[in-house]
Specification:
With about 250 residues, the chain is mainly β. It is built from one helix and eleven strands, in the order αβββββββββββ. The protein has one domain (about 5-245): Porin (Beta Barrel), CATH 2.40.160. Helices cover about 5% and strands about 65% of the residues.
Length: about 250
């Protein structure tokens, strides 16, 4: 833990400094709500599955919708703390600035390695994910074109959980959560925005039952657009509901 936590802090500081350095460029500010349901089900000691459903608003928290997302995967457990997942995601990008009258679909195969580290009182999760993004081409404001634009995307996510006071019934089931994720684009169609976005989240997780928990908090998303000259700074309220089922025989 003494070695890991300074690394996390260094990543956060580095990414925030990068955002500040880029702040002289054109930045649009948005306020969004992100809702999500996340399910993990373990069938045997070695195999499990997961899926999640997400919905995101466009601006001013409740003004229209920007995106929905369905993601599913098949998981192989090396052990209780390390697992590999192969999956597929489908996203819909609702009408936006560059396609005001048409919804753009995306097909996204993905591969992920995730591992957990438990300390005396705290918990650390790290995850690397590789995505292949097939986004439908757009002909004009109201028409999709044939074919897809394609790029790869790499994601590194680190999440740290700290338990709150054990002296009350409510707080002994509550964790403070800090989460940092960086997303990097690459591929021959990527010219300007190799840096895709940075997501920083801080909030609370409340354990509702043995298998269910609710997470709520603030997330800042700093995103570079494909032109390389425009950025989005998104202040987000994120609400997530998690369920973890274990179907193994006791």
């Amino acid at each position: 833990m003494k070695r890991t936590f300074p690394i996390i802090c260094f990543i956060v500081v580095l990414l925030n400094n990068t955002a500040v350095a880029q702040s002289k460029k054109s930045i649009e500010n948005f306020q969004q709500l992100w809702y999500g349901y996340f399910n993990q089900t373990r069938f045997t000691n070695k195999w499990g599955a997961s899926f999640d459903l997400q919905l995101r608003t466009r601006d001013r928290f409740t003004n229209k919708y920007s995106q929905d997302l369905f993601r599913a995967g098949l998981t192989y457990y090396f052990n209780n703390n390390t697992k590999l997942t192969l999956g597929y995601a489908y996203a819909s990008f609702f009408p936006g600035d560059n396609h005001p009258k048409v919804t753009e679909p995306e097909h996204r195969p993905w591969q992920q390695l995730q591992w957990h580290t438990a300390f005396t009182k705290t918990r650390l999760m790290q995850r690397v994910r590789l995505e292949q993004r097939f986004r439908r081409k757009i002909l004009n404001d109201s028409t999709l074109a044939d074919g897809f634009n394609f790029n790869w995307r790499f994601r590194y996510n680190v999440l740290y959980e700290v338990p709150l006071s054990q002296h009350t019934t409510f707080f002994k089931k509550t964790w403070f959560v800090i989460n940092e994720e960086i997303l990097i684009n690459f591929g021959k169609e990527i010219i300007y925005n190799y840096f895709d976005q940075n997501r920083f989240f801080a909030g609370l997780k409340y354990q509702l039952t043995k298998i269910s928990s609710l997470q709520a908090g603030y997330m800042n998303v700093f995103q570079e657009l494909s032109s390389g000259k425009k950025y989005k700074n998104i202040n987000t309220i994120r609400l997530s509901f998690f369920q973890n089922f274990d179907l193994r025989k006791k």
